[in-house]
Write a structure and sequence with these properties.
about 10% strand, coiled coil, 2 domains, 3 helices, Tail fiber domain-containing protein, about 35% helix, two-stranded antiparallel sheet, alpha+beta
Length: about 150
């Protein structure tokens, strides 16, 4: 007869403080970039670390959103010999850098994706979609109001 072991509930592992994860290895605002537990880099987003700040106007935001929406997604595997933390047989999902415009602001040296820049470009697409949704909601409200007035004979 097998020996029954007592149930041991799972334990929460502490991987670091929010301060460490957001401010970097030293946990101070002096970090220009820290590392995540998995080894990835995070960029400091504070105004104090940036210069030549220029906000996108509506036309630039729309162009960026259009670029994101036009990206073709692909499944792929990394070639043997390419540095990757993934096993060779792992199927990845993403886009191919060469499929982006030459002046894409989230591509670095036509080889790598600036993930922070790409996330910001996705935000531009989301903002554009929200602006479209708000406009459609206004139009729908106007149509409903007109239909209600017409039904009442006003």
């Amino acid at each position: 007869m097998p020996v029954r072991r007592a149930y041991v509930p799972p334990q929460l592992r502490h991987l670091g403080s929010v301060r460490h994860l957001t401010l970097g290895d030293t946990g101070s605002l002096g970090d220009k970039a820290g590392t995540f537990m998995g080894g990835g880099t995070m960029m400091m987003s504070s105004r104090e670390a940036k210069e030549d700040i220029a906000y996108l106007d509506d036309a630039a935001r729309k162009r960026l959103a259009d670029e994101v929406m036009a990206l073709r997604l692909a499944n792929y595997r990394y070639r043997e010999g390419v540095a990757s933390p993934l096993p060779l047989d792992h199927r990845c999902l993403g886009f191919i850098v060469e499929d982006t415009p030459a002046d894409s602001p989230f591509i670095v040296e036509r080889k790598q994706v600036d993930v922070y820049g790409f996330a910001s470009a996705i935000l531009a697409a989301l903002q554009e979609q929200q602006q479209t949704i708000a406009g459609l909601e206004r139009q729908l409200a106007e149509l409903r109001e007109g239909t209600t007035r017409h039904a009442k004979g006003d």
